[in-house]
Amino acid sequence: MAATIEGRSRELLEGKNFCLVTTLRKDGTPFDVITWVDVQDSRVLLNTAEGRSWPQNLRNDPRVWLVVPNMENPYEYVRLAGRVAEDTHEGADEHIDKLAKKYLGEDKYPFRQEGEVRVKIAIEPEQVQHVGQ
Amino acid sequence: MAATIEGRSRELLEGKNFCLVTTLRKDGTPFDVITWVDVQDSRVLLNTAEGRSWPQNLRNDPRVWLVVPNMENPYEYVRLAGRVAEDTHEGADEHIDKLAKKYLGEDKYPFRQEGEVRVKIAIEPEQVQHVGQ
Fold first, then answer.
1. CA–CA min distance A30, chain B (Å)
2. What architecture does CATH give domain B7-131?
3. pLDDT reading at B118 higher than 90
4. What is the pLDDT along chain A (133 residues), one digit of tens a residue?
5. Interacting residues of B48 by C-beta distance below 8 A, sequence separation 6+
6. Does the distance separating the beta carbons of B71 and A71 come in below 8 Å?
């Protein structure tokens, strides 16, 4: 049931737009964060750090809902529903540097904390909907 | 258990920032939309139209989760959890005009559809969290 990310939806993910990530807590209530986002092949990539609540939510329930607005015109956005396909430390440091380049124009992610363990999360989209124009 | 909206959180709601609204479908999965937002006294105000899915979700489950980013710096946002306190047609047309003034600088909401019935939704916040800076 994988959905493809193409056209305007892909452009929004590739652009310097922020991603609203909705995960579910153990009690079934949604938890929203805003974060950077990236797309690679058929998957959406997010990056976080161990100890944060939302990757933990995803380990309990791998379903995830994303909204990525066109930051210059938030009447347009892409809405995705999917599942975690991969959750790894491998390549996660390089990946946060790539996101820092995309969003900040910096070669190295400047907010790294001592002892921080980065996590790269790949999401397989099941539904992709482009809203507005 | 009402929470107050004050300081920077209130400024973000008063500013020309968009609101991510998370509601729950009957099957418990979250549904996200981006919309205009307003604050009046202790309540958050949203405006929608009959026939849309998210106000219907709120009639099934009045719990709602909001994220309002600083659109000029989305590393800062306010996250609210609350419940629908009022869901009314009364004053809803005037209220969408007020939002059009805030977001578009127009006296009248320009996207009104023929036969559209506007709905004003007031939310009583139970948790208000300011994130980032």
1. 7
2. Roll (2.30)
3. yes
4. 789 999 999 999 999 999 999 999 999 999 999 999 999 999 999 999 999 999 999 999 999 999 999 999 999 999 999 999 999 999 999 999 999 999 999 999 999 999 999 999 999 999 999 999 8
5. B35, B54, B55, B118, B119, B121
6. yes
Query: CA A93 to CA A1: how far, in whole Å?
Result: 30
Q: Do B77 and A24 touch (CB under 8 A)?
A: no
Give the span between the Cα atoms of A32 and B56, in whole angstroms. Answer: 21
Residue whose entry in the numeric block shows the structure tokens 């949203």: B46
Encoded tokens for B33: 């939309």
Nearest chain A residue to B17, by CA: A74
pLDDT at residue B66 tops 90: yes
Interface test with B, best of A19, A20, A61, A65 (most B CBs within 10 A): A20
d(CA B83, CA A97): 39
Q: Does B30 touch chain A (CB under 8 A)?
A: yes
Q: What is the Rg, in whole angstroms, of the alpha carbon atoms belonging to chain A?
A: 14
pTM for the predicted model, two decimal places: 0.95
- For residue B1, what pLDDT band results from cuts at 50, 70 and 90? confident
Spell out the domain ranges in chain A.
7-131
Long-range Cβ contacts of A90-98 (<8 Å, 24+ apart): A90/A120, A91/A120, A92/A47, A92/A117, A92/A118, A92/A119, A92/A120, A93/A118, A95/A38, A95/A45, A95/A47, A95/A120, A96/A47, A98/A38
